[in-house]
Amino acid sequence: MLKLYRAGNSICTQKVLITLAEKWLQYETQDIDLFNNEQYRPEYLAINPKGVVPALAHEGHIVTESTLICEYLDDTFPAPRFIPQDAYARTLMRKWSKAVDEGLFEATRELSFSAMFRERMRGMSEAQREARFRNVGDPNKRARFMSTYELGVESPYVLQAIAAYEVAFRDMEKALAGPSRAAKDWLVGDQMTLADINLMPFVARLAYLGLLDIWVAERPGVLGWWARVQELSSFRTAVPGPLSEREREAMATYGARIHERVRERRQAYLDQLAVPSAAA
Ligand SMILES: N[C@@H](CCC(=O)N[C@@H](CS)C(=O)NCC(=O)O)C(=O)O
Known about the structure:
The protein is an alpha+beta fold and 280 residues long. It has helices at residues 11-22, 42-45, 66-76, 87-122, 126-135, 139-151, 156-177, 194-208, 212-216, 220-231, 233-238, 245-273; strands spanning 2-6, 27-31, 55-58, 61-64. The protein has two domains: 2-76, Glutaredoxin; 87-273. The structure holds glutathione. Glutathione (GSH) binds at residues 7, 10-12, 34, 39, 51-54, 65-67, 101, 105.
């Protein structure tokens, strides 16, 4: 039997839920309440020493890291297949996973945190908040958390997030609607792969925060992809399905409060990238 350790509205868990739904797999779940620091309880740290969700238990094995869990599921239950068989296509798929793991995940965390979770943490008692920061063992992660908690959308990490999304959407647009090729439905090859599944929750989170237009209003390839994603029953079951009305409202409300400043910071980032003309 498969058992998934998960948290509500966790983007990393959502990738795994989409993969499970695409494969029609049955599984048990255990909820880990991140706002009650359950991820740092010794019994959970024995499952995932990083103190994060998701984690998957299967036949005596524990698999952590959402990208690896999705690959494990695809290798173990290969019908239907979401890892391309062709070696080059598989490499392209993994490039997208790397983009998520090496930049987009933190980008999404920073934006969500600055918009919303920051407010939730403000509502915690001093002791709870301190426990939360103290328990984050990785100094880099703690610095990010504290900066975004203290500075919100003005944090330098939010600028990194804005830049990471810019690069990801630029590359997605190139892959989906590049000028030299006909528009494509999916990022790698003709079929949906783990590259698409990996990205879905990250794009969805921006959409639910009401921030997606900042990056994609003029990217028809990405807009077409996002429209296709929202039609998938696996996506609907895994991502918007479990969200409560309160969670949806919170994302929309808190996202709206930072929209203008995120837009301005993205514009400043683009302006600073622009090469000055020779006449200037
Ligand atoms: N690279 C990991 C990241 C996991 C991760 O950070 N998960 C978040 C939820 S999306 C979490 O558990 N956060 C709790 C915390 O940092 O205290 C993965 O993809 O599984």
